[in-house]
């Protein structure tokens, strides 16, 4: 994969965010030419700056993805060969505070990217990042498969489900794998991953960032809202490897890769929130937690499992790390960052190397 990406022109939207920064770092380490469209980083600290990405990225475009004209201009000017679309309002609870912003960013942002790619003929491979929350959640024990019905209770989940449907429509109507090579030269995949953990996330209302802020910055107890909620936890490098595999195979014209893919953990990664917090505190060797007394009125799913057999069978993608390993990598990252942030760039590169080797 490393050889494949060397020298390729890549557009990442959402490259200033948590997953986008990791993805940009991997691709830059592999010698790709990376341009990005995002808003400036929204937290202090943030991974984008911690990894020196403002300087390392070939070209940073900071604007609102809802501007079709600007999106088209960048695609036209940069002529990327592969696009990873991650830009989104990505926080479930923020969706309740700003449903309009969440829906427009996530749906219109995806329409704009797909429309620009349809009009400007340079892109060979497109990976649209949605989420495991696109599925109509029945709160049952069975894992969701790619063919299951989409839904979405809260604005974030519904907007990502809508973005998923929009992408599927562009695939069927304009980038149909059956007419690849005759009517068009672009293949598109949709990636649905579960909750990711990893160093460098400081978003609000996410469990691991809330934990490290409480322990290292505020020096107070971690407060957890939904101790029994089960999520598919995985280290950020796991789904990113899946996205990169999709990008390569689409670029190489593998038509059967077009469509939706789940990326989630093995069974050991489905644990409840309290378990994750306890394990994190053990790894850090410091911190305490308490369970919030007030009941949140913002509905969040309690049980969400993903079926990853399609990725296992057809892509040969399987999680590399057990949950323990992902948690260790995550909390070691934060421990070093808070001890000496000058060392974090090299440490991140080391984690990337170790994971991919
Ligand atoms: N973090 C997770 O656990 C998780 C799980 C499943 C799916 N996802 C998806 O992965 C993607 C990346 O998530 P993340 O955790 O890195 O989120 P993040 O909040 O850290 O980053 C979001 C990125 O999108 C950009 N963005 C937001 N609104 C924008 C706008 N209006 N115009 C231009 N750029 C805008 C931000 O600038 C940032 O670069 C998202 O699509 C998210 O829905 C995340």
Question: What attributes characterize this protein structure?
Answer:
Rossmann fold; three-stranded mixed β-sheet; 14 helices; seven-stranded parallel β-sheet; binds nicotinamide-adenine-dinucleotide; alpha/beta; 357 residues
Task: Describe what you observe in this structure.
- The chain has one domain (2-356): Rossmann fold, CATH 3.40.50.720.
- The chain is of the alpha/beta class.
- It has helices at residues 2-5, 18-29, 47-50, 53-56, 68-78, 92-97, 99-119, 155-173, 207-218, 237-251, 273-284, 309-315, 323-339, 344-356, and strands at residues 9-13, 33-38, 59-62, 82-85, 125-129, 187-193, 195-197, 222-224, 230-235, 259-263, 270-272, 289-291.
- Helix 8 links the parallel strand 5 and strand 6 (187-193).
- It has a seven-stranded parallel β-sheet, sandwiched between helices. The protein has a three-stranded mixed β-sheet with strand order 7-9-11. Strands 8-12 form a two-stranded parallel sheet.
- The longest helix has 21 residues, at 99-119.
- Bound molecules: nicotinamide-adenine-dinucleotide.
- Residues 14-20, 38-39, 64-66, 86-90, 105, 129, 131, 160, 193, 195-196, 203 line the site of nicotinamide-adenine-dinucleotide (NAD).
- What is the H-and-E element order? HEHEHHEHEHHEHEEHEEHEEHEHHH
Low-confidence stretches: none
**Proper CATH architecture:** 3-Layer(aba) Sandwich
Spatial separation of the terminal alpha carbons: 11 Å
Alpha-carbon Rg, integer = 19 Å
CATH class label: Alpha Beta
- In total, the number of strands is 12
- DSSP summary: helix tally: 14
How many domains would you count in the coordinates? 1
């Amino acid at each position: 994969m490393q050889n494949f990406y060397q020298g390729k022109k890549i557009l990442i939207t959402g490259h200033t965010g948590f997953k986008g920064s990791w993805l940009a770092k991997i691709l830059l380490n592999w010698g790709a030419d990376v341009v990005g469209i995002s808003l400036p980083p929204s937290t202090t600290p943030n991974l984008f700056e911690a990894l020196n990405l403002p300087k390392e990225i070939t070209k940073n475009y900071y604007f609102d993805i809802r501007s079709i004209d600007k999106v088209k201009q960048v695609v036209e000017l940069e002529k990327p060969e592969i696009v990873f679309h991650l830009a989104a309002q990505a926080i479930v609870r923020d969706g309740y505070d700003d449903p309009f912003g969440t829906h427009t960013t996530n749906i219109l942002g995806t329409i704009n990217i797909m429309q620009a790619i349809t009009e400007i003929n340079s892109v060979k491979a497109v990976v649209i990042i949605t989420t495991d929350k696109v599925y109509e959640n029945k709160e049952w024990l069975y894992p969701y498969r790619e063919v299951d019905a989409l839904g979405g209770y809260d604005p974030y989940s519904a907007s990502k489900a809508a973005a998923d449907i929009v992408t599927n429509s562009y695939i069927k109507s304009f980038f149909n794998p059956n007419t690849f090579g005759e009517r068009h030269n672009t293949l598109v995949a949709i990636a649905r991953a579960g909750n990711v953990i990893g160093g460098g996330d400081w978003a609000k209302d996410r469990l691991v960032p809330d934990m490290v802020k409480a322990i290292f910055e505020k020096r107070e107890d971690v407060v957890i809202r939904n101790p029994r909620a089960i999520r598919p936890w995985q280290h950020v490098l796991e789904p990113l490897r899946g996205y990169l595999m999709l990008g390569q195979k689409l670029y190489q014209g593998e038509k059967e890769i077009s469509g939706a893919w789940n990326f989630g953990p093995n069974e050991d990664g489905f644990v409840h929130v309290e378990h994750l917090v306890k394990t994190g505190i053990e790894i850090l060797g410091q911190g305490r937690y308490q369970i919030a007394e007030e009941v949140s009125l913002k509905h969040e799913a309690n049980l969400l499992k993903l079926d990853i057999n399609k990725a296992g069978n057809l892509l040969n993608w399987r999680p590399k790390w057990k949950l323990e390993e992902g948690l260790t990598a995550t909390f070691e990252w934060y421990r070093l960052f808070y001890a000496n942030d000058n060392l974090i760039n090299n440490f991140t590169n080391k984690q990337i190397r170790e994971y991919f080797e």
